[in-house]
Automatic annotation (TrEMBL):
The chain crosses the membrane at residues 12-35, 164-183. It is an enzyme of class 2 (transferase). InterPro entries: HAMP_dom, HATPase_C_sf, HATPase_dom, His_kinase_dom, HisK_dim/P_dom, HisK_dim/P_sf, Sig_transdc_His_kin-like_C, TCS_sensor_his_kinase. The keyword Transferase applies. Residues 469-492 are annotated as: Disordered. It is found in: Membrane. Keywords: Kinase, Membrane, Phosphoprotein, Transferase, Transmembrane, Transmembrane helix, Two-component regulatory system. This is histidine kinase. Gene3D superfamilies: 1.10.287.130, 6.10.340.10, Histidine kinase-like ATPase, C-terminal domain (3.30.565.10).
Length: 492
């Protein structure tokens, strides 16, 4: 798998492209050398044959047929290795002189052209089989003359050159491929260092920085720029956190004091109408405090981490506790509330944060499912993952809004008339990210008037190997001011 991922990298593909261009250049160069070398040797052979033909023609003009036969016999006698090929025949191909006995098969109709044939017993050749090249033309008086050369050595030389070119191309491609792989691996290692550090920073380790080698190359410059950007981001986040802390000190305490004063006023008011107005003001103050606490909690979860509360938990038992808490609320709406909890599904996480996430999701399902609807809570293990799933038959979420519901204060159009502040799923998403989880949304009953919603949280199951997981503040999952469960302060 690692090799396959290496081959898919852009650096290897770039090296592969360079290899193709380089190999093509080498191939064209070797092909040109071969073409020029082989062409030169073939031309030399043809020129030698032409020279012999010119000499024989001169002898024929000065000495006639008998002189031609004599000179052919003399040349054959002087060439015991038979590098030159001669055959003089009558019009009906009876041999008059030469070092082959019969006319090559399939060439009797040729006249004045070049032929390639094999010297073998079929033409009366007594030696080992060899390749030859010759030219045929007709002599005055109906005689036929074939003059050629043994080109077996030339053909073998061409084969040697072709083999050398093939091996050269193979070695070139192999070395280019090896070089491309080594180059891409070196580049990929540098990129992987940046990717790994970036992933850890995204998981909340904002103090980390991308290492450099001190070579001042492109990667070092990129790392320096990213580190400076991270420094700037951390500086801005610290500024935001400082503002949040100031707001918490300057605004949340007066809000709490105001709520308590309203609650005390509610006790002393005798008029029913005034009591209703004060009660509504208390409820509004509670909603403001809940929204404020949820915002601060999400900010803490997204910007800071603490692994002190990470423990091995039974997800099925945790979900069972949450279901027991909310089942009565479901019964009040005459809803069907079912559970399918696979036993022994373990994860590593913060119990309070996970309980808050589970409670928020079950509470949302009950809230957005009409009376006599159906809710099903599922826990199961799938491969190396632990899955927590809540299925309802409520109003659902349109497909074009599923990617937006995790934004702060975002509320689906159908749910704007119901109580909530649009922070519940943002908090759920923050808790899921801390536990390396992934949230999936789908319709429970696709195509129906009430499609419902199936929300699945997929988290790594505990395998006995300790993993470093980003965690949150150990504040017990409760509102800092009113002591109510945090699930109530984070509803969507």
């Amino acid at each position: 798998m690692k090799l396959l991922s290496q081959l898919r990298t852009s650096s290897f593909q770039l090296a592969l492209l360079y290899m193709v261009v380089f190999a093509t250049s080498v191939f064209l160069l070797l092909a040109f050398i071969y073409w020029r070398t082989a062409g030169f040797m073939t031309a030399q052979t043809d020129e030698t044959i032409e020279a012999e033909i010119a000499g024989l023609a001169e002898q024929y003009r000065s000495r006639g047929v008998n002189g031609l036969i004599t000179i052919i016999r003399e040349r054959v006698a002087r060439d015991p290795n038979a590098k030159s090929i001669y055959l003089l025949t009558t019009d009906d191909f009876l041999k008059l002189a030469g070092n082959v006995e019969t006319w090559p098969e399939g060439t009797r109709s040729s006249d004045g052209g070049w032929i390639n044939f094999t010297l073998n017993p079929a033409v009366g050749w007594q030696g080992p089989e060899r390749l030859a090249r010759a030219r045929i033309f007709e002599v005055q008086g109906g005689l036929r003359l074939l003059v050629g050369r043994d080109v077996d050595d030339l053909t073998n030389l061409k084969r040697v050159i072709e083999t050398a070119i093939n091996w050269g191309m193979g070695i070139t491609l192999a070395l280019a491929l090896l070089g491309g792989f080594l180059m891409s691996r070196s580049t990929t290692r540098r990129i992987e260092v940046i990717n790994n550090t970036s992933r850890r920073i995204m998981n909340g380790h904002l103090s980390l920085r991308i290492p450099t080698r001190g070579t001042e190359d492109d990667f070092d410059q990129l790392a320096d720029n990213l580190n400076q950007m991270l420094d700037r981001i951390v500086y801005l986040m610290e500024g935001i956190r400082h503002v949040s802390d100031s707001i918490a000190h300057d605004l949340r305490t007066p809000l709490t004091r105001l709520r308590n004063q309203l609650e005390n006023t509610l006790i002393t008011v005798d008029n029913d109408e005034a009591r209703d107005h004060v009660g509504q003001a208390v409820a509004e103050a509670d909603q403001l405090l809940a929204t404020f606490n949820a915002l601060l909690r999400i900010a803490r979860l997204e910007t800071r981490g603490n692994s002190a509360d990470m423990k091995v938990l039974s997800l099925d038992e945790l979900v069972s506790d949450a279901c027991e808490l909310y089942e009565a609320l479901s019964e009040d709406k005459e809803q069907s509330f079912s559970q399918a909890l696979e036993p022994g599904v373990q994860i590593e996480g913060d119990r309070d944060l996970l309980f808050q996430m589970i409670s928020n999701l079950i509470d949302n399902a009950i809230k957005y499912t009409p009376e006599q609807g159906a809710i099903n809570v599922v826990v199961r293990r799938e491969g190396t993952d632990a899955l927590f799933e809540v299925q309802d038959s409520g109003i659902g979420i349109p497909d074009d809004e599923k990617d937006q519901v995790f934004q702060r204060f975002y509320r689906v159009g159908k749910s704007r008339s119901l109580p909530g502040n649009g922070l519940g799923l943002s908090l759920v998403n923050a808790v899921a990210e801390i536990h390396q989880g992934q949230i999936l949304l789908s319709d429970t009953h696709e195509g129906e008037e009430l499609p419902g919603l199936t929300l699945t949280v997929r988290m790594p199951a505990y395998t006995g190997i300790k993993k470093r997981i980003k965690a949150a503040q150990p504040d017990g999952g409760h509102s800092a001011e009113d002591g109510r469960p945090a699930a109530e302060t984070g509803s969507a």
